[in-house]
Amino acid sequence: MQTKAVWHPEQAYIEKTRLFRFMQKFGYDDYDAFYKKSITDIDWFWNAVVQDMGIAWFRGYDRVVDLSAGIGWPSWFKGGQLNIAYTALEKWLGDEVIARRDAIRWVGENGEVSCCTYEELAGQVNRAANGLRKLGIAKGDRVVIYMPMLPETVISMLAVAKLGAIFTPVYSGYAAPALAGRMKASDAKMVITADGFYRRGSVIRMKEEADKALQSAAAVEKVVVVRRLGVDIPWQNGRDVEWTALTVDANAAANLQAEAMDSGDPLMLLYTSGTTGAPKGIVHTHSGFPIKAAFDAGYAMDFRPGDVMLWVTDMGWMMGPFLVFAALLNAGTMLLYEGSPDYPGPDRIWRLAHQHQVTHLGISPTLIRVLMQHGESGFQGCDLSALRVIGSTGEPWNLEPWLWLFQQVGKEQVPIFNYSGGTEISGGILGNVLLKPIAPVGFNTPIPGMYADVLDHEGKPIRGDVGELVLKAPWVGMASGFWQEPERYEAAYWSRWQDIWVHGDWVTVSDDGFWYITGRSDDTLNIAGKRLGPAEMETVLVGHPSVIEAATIGVPDAIKGEAAVCFVVPSIDISASSVAEGLVAQLVEWAAQQLGKALKPKAIHFVDALPKTRNGKVMRRVIRAAYLGEAPGDLSALDNPAAIQAIRQAGIHRSN
Questions:
Q1: Measured at the alpha carbon of residue 580, what is the angle toward residues 578 and 582, in degrees to the nearest 5?
Q2: Domain count, the chain
Q3: Is 252 in the same domain as 291?
Q4: Could you report the per-residue pLDDT of 386-438, keeping only the tens digit for each?
Q5: What is the reported pLDDT for 327?
Q6: CB atoms within 10 A of CB 300
Q7: Which of the two residues, 276 and 158, has the higher pLDDT score?
Q8: What is the largest CA-CA distance in the chain?
Q9: Cα–Cα distance between 66 and 70 in angstroms, integer?
Q10: How many helices (H) and strands (E) would you count in the chain?
């Protein structure tokens, strides 16, 4: 899909942005020239970034980047020592304004609200770090953080980092087997969890799941429990520790010094699902993930000191830690929300933005597709005048919900920062910088410092057609391998073309310079020699008034090699077989009219829901496996397992 720009920044607007002011420090007024410099002289660029951001070093670095081990294993800021917990918090305490600024605002689904200033957060991190140290946590130990979106979740992350230990945030909705897998894979010494949390008005219990997981994670010695709900929970004396007991001793924690860490020392393990069943433990360092995340937010998204960011996510997904470090390293405020963004009504997310004067709101296209069904009634009465940027990540857009968000909610004034990268990136590859026009559903540039290109099957640059998204130079925040699996890391990203990172997205670049993601490269259909990104078919189907959501997979076809099969969530009652059959015929013809008869779906199946992760990403590989009766691989990231059954049934009927 290629569309014309609909948002155009005026020059006065451009000149106020942090990115433009950063460019001007080095004599650049033209973004494209600056971007080229950022990817051809990475030493200069990333040195300029950390200096301008004011990253605090305990020992200055000797070299910005050392590539002697190869492009896949860069050593950033070699010789430097720091601790990102110090830079995120203690560095700011000498500034009276920032010290008294809210670092965290928290809203519970049941309406509870609490705030924590930078000064207060630093004190609480010290207490927690002191308590963890007394329990035996030291440099290099791994601590699993299995928590909902609470202030204590952030405190835990920073306290572990301050001691030089390594934290592993795990999705709060995981059941015991998925949690146990991450405990064992990281060889965790401790788990920090909660008794539970609220979601869609229900109590979600966590301690019980943690206990089940611990039955097969023998290395865990201590379990620290935060009392969010105050409900009765199972308790094992000698192993389980109350959070309040951990953090009670303020005096002993007052002078706790942050551990000096080499710039390449691990900070965090982020686990992502793998298609072969074993999750991948992405290693991120003190000088990697936080700096990349904070740069993307601060400069590309124009998040300024004192701004307020709310991102609808979970701390177990990449955008959770992104929110933490984006806010703190830029002297802003993070707004943590515990529950569902459309509960108890479709106005919840907009009311949060209104009540807390949110300047940067992060959503997913799936959420907007849900909210747009309610029309303007979902945000009427909400003052969104503080909102400067709407961020979007997790999946490709369809045109209609993008336009609804831009035109109806943002009144064509608020830019939508489409943002795509991933856990292994520490942020974005592609984005919508605020110095250039923005077109619906696309990206106006790679993020500065990201040497992106699109290659054809022979490894040659391609424009105007679909190709493989790649990166041709390392960047700060690049995965520092997989935890204890270096060969798997190299095979995943560096094995196709020499010294080129293959990201796994199909992308096309239009003649006017806009980038569009059409889907994962392993999702892309090849129908009689014609490539079709699943998002293209899904966009067409969602454009029909009787369709809420759609997912497209490719299945073997005796004639065409591969054919498109679509799963649709209808917006009308299809309980009558005549209505269902009629809608199928309409949708097949609808797709044929817009994509051509050769690309029309072979079959369309109606389902109540699509299998998704909690952050809204449709799991097409799971749909395909269920439909074809194959092993689905790792399902630990799946938020709604029940959705698979209807797809399996459709596959059984297909084969009969």
A1: 65
A2: 3
A3: no
A4: 999 999 997 888 899 999 999 999 999 999 999 999 999 999 999 999 999 99
A5: 98
A6: 26
A7: 158
A8: 75
A9: 9
A10: 22, 32
Based on the fold, state whether residues 281 and 246 are members of the same structural domain.
Answer: no
Question: Among residues 270, 318, 260, 263, which one has the least CA distance to residue 286?
Answer: 263
Q: Give one DSSP letter per residue of 258-287, joined into a string.
A: PPPEETTSEEEEEEE--TTSSPEEEEEETT
pTM equals: 0.87
One domain for residues 343 and 424:
yes
Summarised one tens digit per residue, pLDDT across range 107-162 is 999 999 999 999 999 999 999 999 999 999 999 999 999 999 999 999 999 999 99
State the DSSP code for 618. Answer: B
CB 566 within 8 A of CB 534: no
CA distance linking residue 67 with residue 371, whole number of Å? 47
Alpha-carbon span 604 to 581, nearest angstrom: 10
- Which residues neighbour 638 within 8 Å (Cβ) at sequence distance 6 or greater? 611, 612, 613, 619, 622, 644
CATH number of 134's domain: 3.40.50.980
In a shared domain, residues 248 and 272: no
Domain boundary (229, 261, 293) is at 261
Q: Is residue 513 assigned to a domain?
A: no
Residues 638-642: contacts with CB under 8 Å, at least 24 apart = 638/611, 638/612, 638/613, 639/173, 639/612, 639/613, 639/614, 640/609, 640/611, 640/612, 641/611, 642/609
The boundaries of the domain holding residue 355 are: 11-70+266-449+470-500
- Residue 414 host element (H or E): none
Number of residues assigned to the chain: 656
H or E stretch covering 191: strand 190-194
In whole angstroms, what is the distance from residue 247 CA to residue 225 CA? 12
Q: What is the pLDDT of residues 71-109, one digit of tens each?
A: 999 999 999 999 999 999 999 999 999 999 999 999 999
Looking at 261, 294, 311, which one is the last position of a domain?
A: 261
277 shares a domain with 198: no
Q: What is the mean pLDDT of the chain?
A: 93
CA distance 308 to 334: 6
User: 249 in a domain, yes or no?
Assistant: yes
Three-state DSSP class for residue 392? strand
N-terminal to C-terminal alpha carbon distance within the chain:
37
Indicate whether 240 and 282 sit together in one domain. no
CB 219 within 8 A of CB 188: yes
Q: What is the pLDDT of residues 312-361, one digit of tens each?
A: 999 999 999 999 999 999 999 999 999 999 999 999 999 999 999 999 99
Residue 481, pLDDT > 50, answer yes
Q: Which amino acid is at 477?
A: G
Looking up residue 569, the CATH number of its domain turns out to be 3.30.300.30
Residues 300, 318, single domain; the answer is yes
- 104 DSSP β-pair partners: 116, 334
Is there a contact between 181 and 156 (Cβ–Cβ < 8 Å)? Answer: no
